[in-house]
Amino acid sequence: MRVGGTNCDEETRSVFDELEIRSEIVHVKTIIEKRNLLDYHGLVLPGGFAFGDYVRAGAIWADLLKDELGDLLHGFAEAGRPILGICNGFQVLVETGLLPGFETSGGQPEIALAGNVPSGYRCTWVASDDFLYLKHENSGRCVFTRTIRKGRLLRIPIAHAEGRILLPRGAEKEYFERLVNSDQIVFRFAKSDGSYAEEVFPYNPNGSMWDIAGICNKSGTVMGLMPHPERAYFGHQLPDWTKRQRPLAYGDGKMIFESMINHILKP
User: Domain 9-265 is of which CATH architecture?
Assistant: First the structure.
């Protein structure tokens, strides 16, 4: 699904094409007019700057979804159909209340994605002289990472200006523990030795609390992450591709999309 300002829809579709999965880039207005969201088996909200990210990142697109497709969108999620939000799409899912999706949401944001610290748009693979690493934290709830071993480090790039995850003031630890206990934390920023970034730049590139880079809902069928797995799908997208004696055919992003498809196609 896309709107004005989306800019990663073609890259995302190319991933499904390579996986031999039929996919469409559909403007949200078409879905609103046809009311046919439930005709699809999975949904991706791609990266970009929806409606220029005016007000705050993802807010306008989220309000449009809630006003025009709220019942269908929640029905889609409740039916166990996977929804993936990448970067701007993650911001939209937070603004709709689908993530983290606690019972008290009522369609209102429960956490926030604020401006990066240090401030500024950041598009990079590299943290200092090392790669930017994501540590897989999920124990199996998230359908998008079931083919990924817990603790594995992934190399996936970022490209955002408002990716700093903030938990409610005064209840930060309570919310963090709630996410951990319900197995809703999927990725955290880490160093090459597997230790957490500890909110230290550049290993944590945006200042997110507890280095959180991606979360899922309680059923594991809705996931949002700030890094871009569609930009780490093919081996030739990797920054060290030309340095390898035997270049990789695929990057780590492939595992996320394969897991999504496996969930859709399961008997």
Answer: 3-Layer(aba) Sandwich (3.40)
